[in-house]
Amino acid sequence: MSEQTIPALKSNMEKSISSLSAQLAKISSGRAQPGLIEDIMVDYYGTQTPLKQIASITVPETRQLLIQPWDKAAVFAIDKAIQISNLGLTPQVEGQTIRINIPQMTEERRKDMKKIVDDYGEKARVALRAHRQDAIKDIKTEEKDKQISEDDSRRLQEQVQKMTESFNSRVDELVSAKEKEIMTV
Prior knowledge:
The protein is an alpha+beta fold. It folds into two domains: 2-25 and 106-183, Orthogonal Bundle (Topoisomerase I, Chain A, domain 4); 34-101, 2-Layer Sandwich (Gyrase A, domain 2). It has helices at residues 2-25, 75-83, 107-144, 150-183; strands at 41-44, 47-50, 55-61, 64-69, 91-94, 97-101. Strand 5 and strand 6 form a beta hairpin. The radius of gyration is 22 Å and the shape is elongated. It starts with a helix and ends with a helix.
């Protein structure tokens, strides 16, 4: 089991980092980014479908998104989904396409977004700590059950701690990069 603990821990921590990256991509920094809207769920013929699966999303200008549905009948469903998404975006239907102008962010809004980024970072750190605790608990159980030696247990726990520190620094990097992006006018 102990030889599986470290790879399983790494996999779980990678998932936490991927989740954080996905959450941060959805946070507006005042610039147009497809990640901001690509996961909006659209009622497409009675099925909730992510926007990225029914349309192409491009960035023709720095503060503008252009959505081109592959099925022209989906234009109004996409428009409605964006309006009810609580992202504060106003889509403009232009025939077969939808254009979204990303509004300039105020200083207060930038600070609010920074707090949200910090919160996501802290949740990721909590998840990493939970994964670390689970791995250490498994290692200690194996030591107690005499499946591994005391030295192996100590060595594995040190590996777990180093891995946790490494992933925590990745969280810090992601969060600080997003904060810098948000605070840049």
